[in-house]
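step: validate -> pass
step: tokenize input -> pass
step: predict -> running
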Amino acid sequence: MQIRKKAECRWDLVSLGEVMLRFDPGEKRLTQARQFEVWEGGGEYNVARGLSSCFGGRASIVTALVRNPVGALIESLVRQGGVDVSHVHWLDFDGMGTAARNGLYFLERGFGVRGALGCMDRGHTAVSQMKPGMVDWESTFGREGARWFHTGGIFCALSDSTLEVAKEAMQAAKRHGAAVSFDCNYRPSLWRERGGRQAAARANRELAQYVDVFFGDEGDLLLEPNDRSNELPKHTDESYAEMASRVLQSYPNFHVIATTVREVRSATSNDFGAFAFAGGSMFRAPELHNLEILDRVGAGDSFASGLIYGLLEDKGMDWALKCGMVHGALTMTTAGDNSFATLAEIERMINGGLANVQR
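step: predict -> pass
step: emit ->
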């Protein structure tokens, strides 16, 4: 996989997706909460923020917001995360949010036998109304230049037009030599009224021809009905290599196939690891057993940003996979969707460091 040189590009990564406000009740349940802490979050955005805040990358988010105080708050939080906002498309506010609104979601953390619970409030948002032709991709990938482009299945699930926007962006990125990654990130709630997992698989298959780095599993591409939940299967070395080989027969353009694996012991204790297949070889990051979790949301996005960083810096597939897995694990130790880890912490864990006090 050829990646453009840093000196040729303004951006290390451009990401396309929705940025929402997350309302976090802390240790309480949503139904008993009387106050919330507010974070910004969104599957594709979290990758850009992780690359920026943890790894020092130059990242920009392409999204749409309504121009009102809520939109201004989201913009401010994005800026604080170190992500560029020059590609945000602003829609006028009609006073009620009838024409367009900014997305919200509420998430209570799980504990023990009680799993985490989310409640989305993102219907008819500004970003779901994005259409082909709204973004000057030739400027973004051509005149400005980007080494990497990332989007995913969450953005594509928001409307029929967002799928077309993602395709348009991928085509432009490929024309200008940017590496393209796609995270399937299946969310049953987003696809429920739009055909379920089969519709999501059709969307993934439509975009797969443009993808260099695929975050997902064979099941994300299959059109046959199945009852899989949002969790990916528990792979062994052999089963993952076999799965990746089958996928590559249909999509030889995939340079890397990667995914996290998780065994849920309780909401606050998981086994967590990662697999990748690249260059005809299978890679596995050593699994973390009984990983203690404060907030599991965003781990997959941090995995993606860590792996992307390793590939951008030409550190090799083995190191990139370990970086992604450790970054994802550290993200689950802090509240909110986003990473507050440092590269030094990640490198220490890759090299076998434990959770000792650092003075």
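step: describe -> The CA atoms of residues 38 and 102 lie 14 Å apart.
step: cleanup -> pass
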